[in-house]
Amino acid sequence: MHPIFLELGNLTIRWYGIMAAAGFLTAALLIHLNRKKAGMNQDQAATLVFLAVICGIVGSRIFYVIRFWSQFRDNFWEIVRIDHGGLVFYGGFFLTLIGITIYCRKQQLSIIRVMDVCAPALAAGHALGRIGCFLNGCCYGNPTKSIFGVTYPESSEIFARYGDVAVHPVQLYEAIANIVLAIGLFYLARHAWRGIAMSTYIILYGVIRFIDEFFRGDHQQVLADELLSGSQIISLCIIPIGIMLLYYFWINEKKTIPTDC
């Protein structure tokens, strides 16, 4: 756990913010590389990235504040201190979908093509963000005796909750899975039929998050006799949606491919 990147007098730069910024820049680069696949010019791609960043941060923070309101009701200033950590991915994901959809309609861009281009960028950016979580000591795992276990200092929330025991580095599990996913989606965005990359992302990230949550130790399970977390519930909702979308685009886009007689 190394939350502080640099201290200059009263100015403190945290690794969480550095990795979040690196994630956004990586996402912007991938969108730029694939923008022509969605018929976007440079200005449209830049605006889309800016919009996605704003929606992602605001949506993620709103969901986190709602979920952990007891931490903020006596200290409203902390609501804007995202450099301390505290973002819920699915909150940003859904608000970004809304923002991109509105923007695409105004610019007369193909929503599906744009979503295909955004899929690998989202996975790559999320991977770097999770590394930031690992350095910050948030979104941590539950105790483990496996060789992958990591320990945190006495000053950390993890130590206060579990003591001097090793926990799963779930942040890194998810980061690695997202990197692999981003590589595959980058290929699909360039070579697969319309909607395939987007649908694949919805399915596979839902699966990744559902599995990863079983190793999380920083939240309480809320459903199925306290077996499932809120994120797992959302995952179980979006995975079938992704499967239906994949089937739809696979069948319908395949019909548009000309065949030799």
Give a description of the structure.
- With 261 residues, the chain is mainly α.
- The protein has one domain (4-249).
- The protein is built from eight helices and two strands; from the N terminus they run E-E-H-H-H-H-H-H-H-H.
- The chain has helices at 15-34, 42-67, 89-107, 111-136, 157-162, 170-191, 196-213, 230-255, and strands at residues 4-8, 11-14.
- Strands 1-2 form a two-stranded antiparallel ribbon.
- The model has no long low-confidence stretch (mean pLDDT 87).
Helix and strand layout, with pairings?
Elements: E1 4-8, E2 11-14, H1 15-34, H2 42-67, H3 89-107, H4 111-136, H5 157-162, H6 170-191, H7 196-213, H8 230-255
Antiparallel strand pairs: 1-2
Helix pairs in contact: 1-2, 1-4, 2-3, 3-4, 4-6, 4-7, 6-7, 7-8
Any descriptors?
two-stranded antiparallel sheet; single chain; 2 strands; 3% strand; 261 residues; mainly alpha
- Supply Rg: 19 Å
User: Which class of secondary structure composition applies to the elements?
Assistant: mainly alpha
The run of helices and strands is EEHHHHHHHH
Q: Helical proportion?
A: 55-70%
Strand content: under 5%
Output the strand order for the largest sheet.
1-2
Rounded mean pLDDT score: 87
Number of helices: 8
Number of beta-strand segments? 2
Sum up the overall morphology in one term. Answer: globular
Distance between the termini: 63 Å
The major sheet is characterized as:
2 strands, antiparallel
